[in-house]
Amino acid sequence: MDRVKVPTYVSDYINLFKQNNCNFIDAIRAPFFFKYFESPKISKTRKWLLQDKNSEIFARAWVDGYETEEELYYIRFCPNDRAAYLKVFKGDLSDKSKWKVTSNDETWNLQTKFTTDEINNYFPQFKPFTVKVGDEDE
Hints:
It holds the Pfam family DUF1642. This is DUF1642 domain-containing protein. By secondary structure, this protein is α+β, with helices and mostly antiparallel strands. It folds into 2 domains: 4-68, no CATH class; 73-132, no CATH class. It is built from 5 helices and 7 strands, in the order βααααβββββαβ. The strands form 3 sheets. The protein has a 3-stranded antiparallel sheet with strand order 5-4-6, with no helix packed on it. A two-stranded parallel ribbon has the order 1-2. The chain has a two-stranded antiparallel sheet with strand order 3-7. Helix 1 crosses helix 3 (40-49).
């Protein structure tokens, strides 16, 4: 059976509850019922659990184990500008003539989300401008 993939913050959340000998029911209920236990990771986990089939993915991860998704980053040049993201043509990240600065929406041929390796290899000069996907509104 293939292991499901979960974001890093969900992986951290599962590990926290398992290390404290909590059961599955406590782990899946906590983000919704224990507001005193609030933190940014708990809040993100709650939002994640409410999306699509993520509660099923969480259950499979708890029982069968999981892999952690590789974190993705935007390169955003101006913090409060929704049109200040680096966008490049997929498959040719090194061609600077195909780099654009625009919104962070992706299309079939344009990429705005990058792995750490892609940033290190193609955009090292932009490291100070990286923002984790999901954290861009913080």
